[in-house]
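Lay summary. Proteins are chains of building blocks that fold into shapes, and those shapes determine what they do. In this project we predict the shape from the chain. Here is one chain we studied, written as its sequence of building blocks.
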Amino acid sequence: MVDREVQRYSHGELAIVVDVSDLDRSAEFWSQVLGYDRAGGSSATYLSLIPGDGRGCEVLLQRTDDRKVGKNRLHLDLRTPDLAAEVNRVRELGATQVTEEPIVEYGWTWHLLADPDGNEFCVLQPPAG
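And here is the predicted shape, written in a compact code that computers can read:
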């Protein structure tokens, strides 16, 4: 296993927690989308995903019976040089595309998608140049 280099903030470590209904399904989806690996250990409630090279922010999946209602107040942005290719790739992995047409603002172009639990995330292409 690769040495783990945690993502730090000024007072400790940073992790992103995503509420899900099915840990295995969500781990499969997010590990493929992000290129992350499942970390050792498992429980009925939590499953940790970490970058394959050991550097970066942990994504902690938290199983909950609560249903998602309304818009996320926090979401992931996947920034890519090829918007169409990345949207197609994550859709093939099980994402649902929410926006029909791309959103364009300040030179950024993006689509809103949802993971298998309905958690929204964006796939963005930065401005040219």
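What the prediction tells us: The mean pLDDT is 93.
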